[in-house]
């Protein structure tokens, strides 16, 4: 009854606290944490972040050092206050104080990623995994994402390989890990396996296309060409993806200095049909010509875009009014 009343209004919460006090046993840690919660968490859900409140929560966590919710409340409040150094210290202390609890490791991952300390974030993620051996999937998904950020695609493949069946069974439920798996396969040259992952998704496929093009931009030119070649049959089904593919070929042509790839990009635009506005097609042509180094023709196309759509923001930024 007392626990249920905690989620009610302030009056019910006070009754709950009184009931806890009347119960036998040591409920001091719970009671103090609830009272602190009622003081620092406002009615709209925001947290009071004055130095006085933060000091009270640090003292609460120190007094009830074996009670994780007290430390959690102190951590959340310091994050809300933007006190990342203090939050980092709270998380590190909690990691040692609660040696089987995976939550402090998750706090550390968040803080290290914000500061781009990827090695430290990866260490924390592995600690999380070691403390979640009964179900390590979420930890492994985070490890794979960090490995990709560190350009270790092979390590990401090894990490996610045991979950291939699970990911394929429900791509939408595991969308983040599914994207990491796709990217890891692409970056290790397993283009055909990655293509199967795209085929398995019917909704939100555009998001996977975007990730595919992003991976192609980062890949070595020969592997990037294989990626674009493989995905082309699916991309040309819609005009928007056709044009994105055209720009991806143009980017690759610029990196590889191959005229045929620029020509391929331009053909994709010319064969787009009526699915896009003339201004959009002209803008894509201009971007391809610019990537090819044909600046005079690119400028001509950009000016045609402005004559059709004077409010076209990207083109207006390239051509201030005094130069049109």
Radius of gyration: 27 Å
Q: Give the helix tally.
A: 20
Please identify the structural class as seen in this structure: mainly alpha
Bulk shape: elongated
Query: Total number of β-strand segments?
Result: 0
* Helical coverage, percent range: over 70%
Taking the sheet with the most strands, its summary is: none
Low-confidence segments, given as residue ranges, are 316-324
Mean pLDDT: 88
Which sequence of SSEs, written as H and E, runs from N to C? HHHHHHHHHHHHHHHHHHHH
Portion in strands? under 5%
Distance between the termini: 74 Å
Structural summary, described in words:
There is one protein chain. With 324 residues, the protein is an all-alpha fold. It is 73% helix and 0% strand. Helix 6 (84-97) runs antiparallel to helix 7, helix 8 packs antiparallel against helix 9 and helix 12 (175-187) runs parallel beside helix 14. The longest helix has 18 residues, at 239-256. The chain is elongated. The N and C termini lie far apart (74 Å). Mean pLDDT is 88; it is low at 316-324.
Write the layout of secondary structure elements.
Layout: H1 2-5, H2 10-22, H3 28-40, H4 51-63, H5 68-80, H6 84-97, H7 103-114, H8 118-130, H9 137-149, H10 153-160, H11 164-169, H12 175-187, H13 191-199, H14 205-218, H15 221-235, H16 239-256, H17 259-270, H18 278-292, H19 295-308, H20 313-318
Helix pairs in contact: 2-3, 3-4, 3-5, 4-5, 5-6, 6-7, 7-8, 8-9, 9-10, 9-12, 10-12, 12-13, 12-14, 14-15, 14-16, 15-16, 16-17, 16-18, 17-18, 18-19
């Amino acid at each position: 009854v007392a626990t249920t009343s905690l989620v009610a209004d302030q009056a019910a919460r006070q009754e709950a606290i009184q009931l806890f006090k009347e119960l036998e046993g040591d409920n001091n840690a719970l009671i103090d944490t609830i009272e602190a919660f009622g003081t620092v968490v406002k009615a709209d859900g925001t947290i009071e972040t004055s130095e006085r409140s933060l000091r009270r929560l640090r003292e609460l966590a120190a007094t009830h050092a074996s009670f994780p919710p007290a430390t959690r409340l102190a951590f959340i409040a310091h994050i809300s206050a933007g006190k990342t150094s203090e939050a980092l210290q709270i998380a590190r202390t909690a990691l040692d104080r609660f040696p089987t609890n995976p939550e402090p490791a998750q706090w550390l991952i968040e803080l290290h990623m914000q500061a781009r300390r990827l090695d430290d974030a990866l260490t924390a993620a592995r600690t999380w995994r070691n403390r979640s051996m009964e179900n390590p999937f979420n930890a492994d998904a985070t490890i794979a994402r960090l490995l990709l950020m560190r350009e270790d695609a092979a390590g990401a493949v090894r990490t996610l390989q045991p979950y291939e069946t699970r990911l394929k069974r429900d791509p939408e439920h595991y969308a983040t890990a599914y994207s990491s798996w796709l990217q890891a396969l692409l970056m290790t040259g397993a283009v055909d396996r990655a293509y199967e992952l795209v085929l398995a998704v019917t909704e939100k496929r555009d998001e996977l296309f975007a990730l595919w093009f992003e991976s192609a931009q980062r890949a070595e030119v020969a592997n990037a060409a294989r990626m674009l070649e493989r995905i082309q049959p699916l991309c040309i089904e819609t005009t928007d993806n056709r044009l994105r593919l055209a720009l991806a070929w143009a980017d690759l042509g610029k990196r590889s200095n191959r005229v045929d790839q620029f020509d391929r990009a331009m053909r994709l635009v010319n064969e787009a049909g009526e699915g896009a506005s003339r201004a959009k097609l002209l803008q894509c042509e201009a971007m391809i010509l610019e990537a090819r180094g044909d600046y005079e023709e690119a400028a001509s196309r950009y000016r045609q875009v402005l004559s059709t759509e004077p409010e076209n923001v990207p083109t207006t930024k390239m051509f201030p009014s005094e130069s049109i």
